[in-house]
Amino acid sequence: MGKGIEGLEQAYEILFTAILIFLAVLALLCLLRAVIGPKTADRIVAVNMLGTMVIVMIAVLTLMLQEDYLADICVIYAMISFLAVIVLTKVYMGVYLERKKIAEMSGETKSGEYTAGDEPGKCDGNDKAEK
Fold first, then answer.
1. Is residue 115 in a domain?
2. 41 domain-assigned
3. Rounded-to-integer distance, Cα 110 and Cα 40, Å
4. 79 in a domain, yes or no?
5. What's the CA gap between 77 and 75, in Å, rounded?
6. Where would you tag: which of 69, 85, 107, 131 has the fewest CB atoms within 10 A of its CB?
7. b (16+ CB within 10 A) / e for 17-35
8. Angle between the N-to-C axes of helices 69-106 and 40-65, in degrees from 0 to 180, rounded to the nearest 10
9. How does pLDDT run across 70-86, given as a tens digit for each residue?
10. How far is residue 101's CA from residue 115's CA, in Å, rounded to a whole number?
11. Number of domains in the chain
12. E strands, 67-129, in order
């Protein structure tokens, strides 16, 4: 009976190790996306996903090593990761809105966009219809 439990523990250890290796590869891919992401929003999502994967890795280590204090570290890391993503999003939105406000004040638009009076097919009320 004791040998069966040892075999089960060994199977769990192999499973947990495989899960950790898989999550480590995914975390590296998320780190790569965070570095080379084409947009800032992609980078923020990658950082959020990376934080989530680290939380899951700590949870798996909690089960694998049977150390209860790692669960506390997992919860603390989750709170810190959440706050980091909120701060990054707040900073990004502040910069975005500031750039948008400056562009509106200077009258600049991106290529392909129209200003309020330039939209095709839109009459501003000053044009008189020809009869």
1. no
2. yes
3. 18
4. yes
5. 5
6. 131
7. eeeeeeeeeebeebeebbe
8. 180
9. 999 999 999 999 999 99
10. 14
11. 1
12. none
